[in-house]
Amino acid sequence: MAVHLVTGYAGRGHVTAAAEGLFNAGVCGLDRYVLQTGTRFAASIMNNNLITIGAGDLVDQGRHISIPTNTTMDISVENGTQGRKRYDLIVMRYNKDAATSVESASLAIIKGAETTGTPVLPACITGDIFSGALQDDTPLYQVYINGLTLESVTPLFTVIDSLAGLRSALINAVYPVGAIYISASATSPATLFGGSWTRIQDRFLLAAGSEYAPGRAGGEATHKLTEAEMPAHTHTGPSHTHTVPEHTHTATAAGAGGHSHTVPEHTHTATSSSAGAHTHQMHRWLHGESKTGGQGWLAQGDIDKKFLTSSAGAHTHSITVAKHAAFSTTAANAHTHSITVAKCAALTSGASGTGATGFTGGDVAHNNMPPFLAVYMWKRTA
Length: 382
Hints:
The chain is mainly β. It has three helices and 27 strands.
């Protein structure tokens, strides 16, 4: 069998009801639906024996059935019986003539059984049109007759949205108010889907529970540990000794540059220590000619006379040197002064116990985030 271009021009009539039915079923679904047109078959009770059905369209397994816009159809209801109740069923009936294959549709009412108890809705015929069924009923209304009174008409059909309505319904089903939308694109979901959205920025999402209530926010990108958050620990230095070898210390002044040293006016006094009891022997030296004939002091052999001082007690002799005037050394070039301390013997300190270590570390906050990928997020608010 060749491929059939259903909606193309073929020079002859070739668009069949079956082809269109399959297309409608593919768009609307395989079941029975009332569309968003006309009055959607609105029903009005005119009296106890008459109901008016308004304009509308339905699709029964792809077959499009319509009561034209701005028109209505009346359907008669049989009288009820005093003291009894019943349910009638209004249907849109599809029929196919077995001999001619001619298809038709009509409103029909199926009378239910009367009862003094709770009435039961009568059965209708359900057929598979795709398989060639000759009849199929789409229930429209349940009619309740109580005694002689037609009390109510209750719709039994499903109304489906248009494609735009279906899109909106789908969006509302997937993203209801309060839903979160995530994307790597900066396009707002309000542009894509409509509605009102608030963008979420610089936040991770956390599943709410007993510990974290819905809507609660918190956390921090970086964190600086407090003392209470640090693990309990100690720092231990092993027991040890310190050994210092024999050595000397030399102190050397830094270069002083040109300078002078000033000595103030002063005297020097020399005092002998206590000498104890003693005498002094004095010689008198005569002045005259020497034995050699010269003028001068006599030689020792020419001593005229000698004598002794009396014995003296313990005493001292003081000699005072003439006073020195203040003076300054000449300006010196840069030089250093070295002081050498007496040599120190080698020593060893005793063994020490544990002690505190010194400080280290930068004392800054650390990164508090796991590996991440930044995306755009919004929350729907309306």
